[in-house]
Amino acid sequence: MATISRAVKGLDLGNVRVEKEVEGLEVYADMLLEKVFFNIIDNALRQCQKVTQIRFFSKETGEGITIFCEDDVSVSPQYERGIFKR
Question: Taking a C-beta distance cutoff of 8 angstroms, is the pair 33, 3 a contact?
Answer without folding.
Answer: yes
